[in-house]
Design brief:
alpha+beta, 6-stranded antiparallel β-barrel
Length: 285
């Protein structure tokens, strides 16, 4: 019997490897079948152990974290309801504030009636050159909303409706450069109000500003910061006559003539800081 030496084994293994490469290149299915059989055998051997370890890990997780999924769902629902409650409480607060304001408006402006007021929320502001805001009320909400209606916030006039659409309406604010109105300038004192100027032309000067050129008549009281500007214009609804529209911020000598004061006026209510307004529906229906 021929003795197998290490040299012979070396040459036999090299020949077998070479034959495997050649056969695999020419007939790959011959090599793949044994490989697949070996893979199936290993998988069959390992699968039971894998299944056992997976079940064991699941049991440990359930023991260490009981009802984890149920707890997560309860926590998620709790957060959701807390968010809804916070939103509803805020809305209720806004409505209560609007109700109080409406009652005070009726007290201060007796000519207004319940049927002539319409509550609205500010949806946004214009991004163009004009100074306007959009309300969430249109003619589908109330057919009585028309261009020219005055809009109040915190009992002060902030502008008037310029356009009415089906779902929204546009309000041109008093600070818009296209806005001009006649107003009276008064000074608050303990006894009430002292008239500084019964009629003055107020013009919009851009976002957050109004201006006025006031004549220096003989024996007239000079205006000063803090004086109130009250609407006194026949072109506006009579129901809002006397409503405050602004307060004097500064007084300077006019650059046009030495016989005039130049007044810088700020709106009585900062529209950027409010959400709720009241539309005063005119009595011309």
């Amino acid at each position: 019997m021929m003795k197998m030496t290490p040299r012979k084994w070396f040459w036999i293994l090299n020949f077998a490897a070479l034959a495997t490469v050649v056969v695999g290149a020419r007939h790959p299915q011959v090599v793949n079948r044994p490989r697949g059989a070996a893979s199936d055998a290993v998988r069959t051997f390992v699968a039971p152990f894998s299944s056992v370890f997976t079940g064991l890990q699941t049991g440990i997780n359930r023991f260490l974290h009981p009802h984890q999924n149920s707890s997560s769902r309860v926590k998620s629902l709790r957060v959701r309801y807390q968010n809804e409650i916070a939103m509803l409480v805020t809305r209720i607060s806004d409505l209560e504030k609007l109700l109080r304001e409406t009652r005070v408006i009726h007290q201060n402006f007796p000519r207004l009636s319940v049927q002539r007021l319409r509550a609205a929320s500010i949806d946004g502001f214009s991004t163009g050159t004009g100074d306007e805001c959009t309300l969430d009320q249109g003619w589908r909400d109330d057919k009585q909303i028309r261009p020219g209606d005055a809009v109040l916030a915190n009992r002060a006039v902030i502008g008037r409706v310029s356009h009415v659409g089906p779902e929204t309406c546009t309000v041109r604010l008093l600070t818009d450069p296209m806005m001009k109105e006649i107003a009276a300038i008064s000074r608050p004192v303990r006894a009430g109000l002292v008239s500084i100027a019964p009629q003055a032309l107020i013009e919009g000067a851009g976002p957050g500003r109004m201006r006025c050129e006031l004549d220096q008549s003989i024996h007239a009281m000079a205006p000063k910061p803090g004086d109130l500007v009250q609407l006194n214009d026949n072109e506006w609804p009579q129901a809002v006559a006397g409503a405050v529209i602004g307060v004097i911020k500064s007084v300077h000598q006019s650059a046009r003539t030495s016989l005039r004061w130049s007044l810088e006026i700020t709106p009585r209510t900062d529209v950027q800081q409010i959400r709720q307004v009241v539309i005063v529906l005119s009595s011309r229906r």
